Amino acid sequence: MDVRHWLLLWGVPSVYALFVAVAGLLINLLYPKLEFKNPGVVVKQSASALVAFLVEFASVAVPMALYVWLRPAWVSYEVYAGGLAAALLVLTALLWQVLRTRGVAWFQHIL
Q1: Domain count, the chain
Q2: Nearest to 56, CA basis, from 86, 93, 98, 27
Q3: Exposed, middle or buried, 18 (CB in 10 Å: 0-12/13-18/19+)?
Q4: Residue 19, Cβ density class (10 Å: 0-12 exposed, 13-18 middle, ≥19 buried)
Q5: Which of 34, 74, 78, 100 has minimal Cβ neighbours within 10 Å of its Cβ?
Q6: What tens digit of pLDDT does each residue of 4-39 get?
Q7: What is this structure's pTM?
Q8: Counting Cβ atoms within 10 Å, is residue 73 exposed (0-12), middle (13-18) or buried (19+)?
Q9: Is the Cα torsion angle 59, 65, 70, 71 positive or negative in sign?
């Protein structure tokens, strides 16, 4: 296994984990559930859990479906996955910036 494959093996899932974490924080700010009888309700039955699941599922399924459907002969999977990881890093940075600016105001509004 060369360095390219090692970076894809560890880099792409790490970028997805970072994206899922930041997107989950933002979604929880947008759809808070503050009234509950036990904490399991917040985790399993809130709108934020459903929206987060759908966003995270789409972030994996759409790029996979596009790659399988288009079968681009002009680009290898390594280049496609690297570009996807780069795009997700940019999107994560944008979401992080939203959390640091508007997210603070949203959090103060919730309290």
Answers
A1: 1
A2: 27
A3: middle
A4: buried
A5: 74
A6: 889 889 999 999 999 999 999 999 999 988 887 888
A7: 0.87
A8: exposed
A9: positive
Instruction: Compute the Cα dihedral for 9, 91, 23, 66 and give only its sign.
Output: negative
Note the pLDDT tens digit of each residue in 51-81: 999 999 999 999 999 988 887 778 888 889 9
Return d(Cα 53, Cα 107) in angstroms, integer.
21
Nearest to 49 by CA among 28, 34, 65, 67: 28
Two structure tokens written together for 90: 């940019």
- Give the position of tokens 């994996």: 60
CB-based contacts of 67, cutoff 8 Å, min separation 6 = 77, 80
Of 111, 109, 98, nearest in space to 25 by CA: 98
